[in-house]
Design a protein that fits this description.
This protein has four helices and eight strands; from the N terminus they run E-H-E-E-E-E-H-E-H-E-H-E. The protein has 202 residues and is α/β, with parallel strands linked by helices.
């Protein structure tokens, strides 16, 4: 059992990110048993959930002539456009059926503001609008984080970088994550995380 100052952050283990989903990550469901087993080692477990309103501005369907995985410029910077996914209340937004949701003490929903996307568990993509997770963890005395989930090169990476920037000691369990890997984004993500002081372990 890890000490009380350590928390497990389980990122976006939802149907749309698993095989058969709208934005499926290859083998995304294969990490569920390992994540479930790891939950027993932590007294603080937080789950994050992508939670988009229909017609979210990050959906390619909302931009005429644009296809998924192309980019547009938004007020907060460059935004990758995605297939419609994790729409509030949909089956795709639901956690994977085998995930031990009951082991989580907090669910952080992100991406619910229609005009801005949110990869990180800590901030929306403007890097300033907080989710409240930082305050929750600090109020529980947490100083060390272990991150698992989907996808390594987007929501997991952004969460890890923000956590390190906020002063947490961060470990990424690479064996319990899976990536999308758009044009080398997976290697770039690992490099960026290591450069920020994130420990990447198998």
């Amino acid at each position: 059992m890890h000490p009380d100052n350590e928390a497990l952050i389980v990122i976006d283990m939802q149907n749309d990110f698993c095989p058969g989903g709208a934005l499926a990550v290859e083998d995304g469901d294969a990490i569920v048993p390992g994540i479930n087993a790891l939950m027993d080692d932590f007294t603080c477990v937080v789950l994050t959930q992508d939670w988009h309103p229909a017609g979210h501005s990050s959906f390619a369907s909302q931009h005429a002539g644009k296809a998924p995985f192309e980019t547009v410029e938004m007020p907060y910077g460059t935004q990758v456009l995605w297939p419609d996914h994790c729409v509030q209340g949909s089956e795709g937004a639901t956690f994977h059926r085998d995930l031990r949701i009951d082991a989580g003490q907090l669910i952080i929903r992100k991406g619910f503001r229609a005009g801005i996307d949110s990869y990180s568990a800590f901030f929306e993509n403007d890097q300033t609008t907080p989710t409240g997770l930082d305050g929750y963890l600090r109020s529980r005395g947490v100083t060390r984080l272990t991150l698992v989930g989907l996808a390594t090169d987007f929501c997991v990476q952004y969460s890890a970088l923000d956590a390190a920037r906020l002063g947490f000691a961060v470990t990424l369990r690479d064996d319990l994550c899976r990536g999308i890997d758009l044009d080398g984004s997976l290697d770039a993500a690992r490099h960026a995380m290591r450069a920020a002081g994130v420990e990447i372990s198998a």
